[in-house]
Amino acid sequence: MKTFLFACVALWSALRMAVPMAWAAPADGTIVSREAVVFPTAQEMARFRAADPPYAKAVETLHMQAITYWSDGLKIKGMLAIPNGPGPFPAIVYNRGGNLEFAGLTPRSFAARAAMFVQAGYVVVGSDYRGNGGGEGREEFGGADVDDVMSLFPLLHKEPKVDGKRIGMYGSSRGGLMTYEVLARTRELKAAVVESGLSDSFQTVKDRPSMESGVYRLLVPGFAEHRDAALRARSPVLWADKLCRTTPILVLHGTADWRVGPHDALAMSRALLDAKIPFRLVMFEGGSHGNEEFADEQEQMEIAWFNRYLRDGARLPNLVPHGE
Fold first, then answer.
1. Which residues pair with 123 in a beta bridge?
2. How many angstroms separate the first and last alpha carbons of the chain?
3. What are the CA-CA distances from residue 300 to residues 29, 84, 320 (Å)?
4. Strand pairing of 31-37 and 189-195?
5. Residue among 173, 122, 168 at smallest CA distance from 149
6. Cβ–Cβ < 8 Å for 76, 7
7. Domains, the chain
8. What is the CA radius of gyration of the chain?
9. CA 64, CA 159: separation in Å to the nearest integer?
10. Is 95 left (phi over 0), alpha (psi -120 to 50) or beta?
11. Mind listing the pLDDT tens digit for each residue in 155-182?
12. What's the 3-state SS for 185-248?
């Protein structure tokens, strides 16, 4: 019997030595690999210069990296851009919209959001969420994949050019939902911008039934059995009181947005007001999803917001009724 026990112990020890990764998973946010991204081509650059000189200048000096990092024991794909200079720089976490490969994180889509922020002096990092772009796992449209965004915080803290005490977040469309979910889990963000953000999943499936059949039912685990619970978990308008009260939020939405109805922004703003969370609401008259018609104006608002609360650390507004 003793011989058998000794043999089991020896086998156990040998297995532990043979597969050490099973006993020590990499820390979330640890970068597995990074490589420089060449974008855009010379032909594309010529078109940018002709159509949008300020954007062309920003893209021309943009140095992007494709990264793979650890989150929940999975290898996740993302992108990172760091300004020239010694730093340390404040950082913005960019939450992409869409699902699966639709609106996925590509050099083009990342540059479209990151270029002006980097030119303004911000590090920008974004996740493609689990299962996308060659990453491991499968996204859940605001479920466990929120961990992939949370894992970007320790990643930024390890970057030598990042000021880890000045981190903000930008989310567009579904990325707005991800931003609200992160705001319910951390007090680390100094400022947030939500553009065309999804905040009421019940209203979303009512307005667009295809979202229930083609997105929620497809991506959310156990959706058929727990539909209402899953939609509620993805409806920050119903739990705005859980959000961080020290992170000012800039809410931007177009009144002609067909993908995420403008009432999402109005209802979320009322919820933020009731929860006494500092925010500013801007509705763009006739703006589509993403407010392309107001791109320059919107970008100026976003940079000004981040400069005020993230870069410069402005005092939070007084939300107690006051004045003459």
1. 91
2. 88
3. 31, 21, 28
4. unpaired
5. 168
6. no
7. 23-311 (3.40.50.1820)
8. 22
9. 14
10. beta
11. 999 999 999 999 999 999 999 999 999 9
12. CCCCEEEEEEECCCCCHHHHHHHCHHHHHHHHHHHCCCCCCCHHHHHHHCCHHHCHHHCCCCCC
Closest by CA to 149, choosing from 184, 196, 197, 101, is: 184
For 60-71, what is the mean pLDDT? 94
In this structure, the number of other CB atoms found within 10 A of the CB of residue 218 comes to: 12
Instruction: Tell me the two tokens of residue 266.
Output: 């109005």
CB of 59 within 8 A of CB of 134? Answer: no
Placement of tokens 């929120």 in the chain: 146
Residues whose CB is less than 8 angstroms from the CB of residue 183 and which lie 6 or more positions away in sequence, other chains included: 169, 189, 192, 243, 244, 247, 249
* Predicted TM-score (pTM) of this structure: 0.91
Judge whether residue 1 has pLDDT over 80: no
Token code pair at residue 10? 């020896």
**Measuring CA to CA, how many Å separate 223 from each of 199, 226, 232, 239?**
18, 5, 12, 20
The angle at the Cα of 52, spanning 46 to 56, to the nearest 5 degrees, equals 55
CB-CB contact of 76 with 28 (8 Å): no
Dihedral pair phi/psi, residue 305, rounded to 5°: -65, -50
What is the token pair recorded at 111? Answer: 């540059």
Residue 185 Cα distances to 10, 133, 202, 234, 280, angstroms: 44, 26, 22, 14, 21
